[in-house]
């Protein structure tokens, strides 16, 4: 199994609904994103998927979130914009763009701060 990973980031604000603490107030983060793609086979050139393609598709999803107040955009206008929900959203949205019979998103790590992250994956 090959696992390819790219790292990117975005800046966005949020406030956590029904949270009993400071994070209920509007605040922002420089979110880190680690997108991992898995493949069992390589093409004739020895490549599973071009890193540029992973970056392109991940950045297309990140662009929807960058410099936004997450609570005001879909799906976070209804769904609480927690790091957990952002990780699941990133996973599922990038999977729509990348997954095929040869490669699939296997894991996303979202960093809310340099010392706090969440990892999301789905069963194969």
TrEMBL record:
<dbReference type="InterPro" id="IPR007115">
    <property type="entry name" value="6-PTP_synth/QueD"/>
</dbReference>
<feature type="active site" description="Proton acceptor">
    <location>
        <position position="23"/>
    </location>
</feature>
<feature type="binding site">
    <location>
        <position position="29"/>
    </location>
    <ligand>
        <name>Zn(2+)</name>
    </ligand>
</feature>
<dbReference type="Pfam" id="PF01242">
    <property type="entry name" value="PTPS"/>
</dbReference>
<dbReference type="GO" id="GO:0046872">
    <property type="term" value="F:metal ion binding"/>
</dbReference>
<feature type="active site" description="Charge relay system">
    <location>
        <position position="67"/>
    </location>
</feature>
<comment type="pathway">
    <text>Purine metabolism; 7-cyano-7-deazaguanine biosynthesis.</text>
</comment>
<comment type="similarity">
    <text>Belongs to the PTPS family. QueD subfamily.</text>
</comment>
<protein>
    <recommendedName>
        <fullName>6-carboxy-5,6,7,8-tetrahydropterin synthase</fullName>
        <ecNumber>4.-.-.-</ecNumber>
    </recommendedName>
</protein>
<feature type="active site" description="Charge relay system">
    <location>
        <position position="112"/>
    </location>
</feature>
<dbReference type="GO" id="GO:0008616">
    <property type="term" value="P:tRNA queuosine(34) biosynthetic process"/>
</dbReference>
<dbReference type="GO" id="GO:0070497">
    <property type="term" value="F:6-carboxytetrahydropterin synthase activity"/>
</dbReference>
<keyword id="KW-0479">Metal-binding</keyword>
<keyword id="KW-0671">Queuosine biosynthesis</keyword>
<keyword id="KW-0456">Lyase</keyword>
<keyword id="KW-0862">Zinc</keyword>
<feature type="binding site">
    <location>
        <position position="14"/>
    </location>
    <ligand>
        <name>Zn(2+)</name>
    </ligand>
</feature>
<feature type="binding site">
    <location>
        <position position="27"/>
    </location>
    <ligand>
        <name>Zn(2+)</name>
    </ligand>
</feature>
<dbReference type="InterPro" id="IPR038418">
    <property type="entry name" value="6-PTP_synth/QueD_sf"/>
</dbReference>
């Amino acid at each position: 199994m090959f696992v390819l990973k790219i790292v990117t980031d975005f800046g966005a604000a949020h406030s956590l609904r029904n949270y009993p603490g400071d994070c209920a107030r509007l605040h922002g983060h420089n979110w880190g994103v680690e997108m991992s793609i898995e493949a069992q086979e390589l093409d004739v050139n020895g490549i599973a998927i071009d890193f540029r393609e992973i970056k392109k598709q991940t950045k297309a999803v990140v662009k929807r979130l960058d410099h936004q107040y997450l609570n005001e955009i879909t799906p976070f206008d209804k769904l609480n914009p927690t790091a957990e929900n952002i990780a699941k959203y990133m996973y599922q949205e990038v999977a729509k763009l990348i997954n095929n019979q040869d490669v699939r998103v296997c894991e996303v790590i979202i960093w809310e701060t340099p010392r706090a992250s969440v990892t999301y994956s789905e069963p194969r």
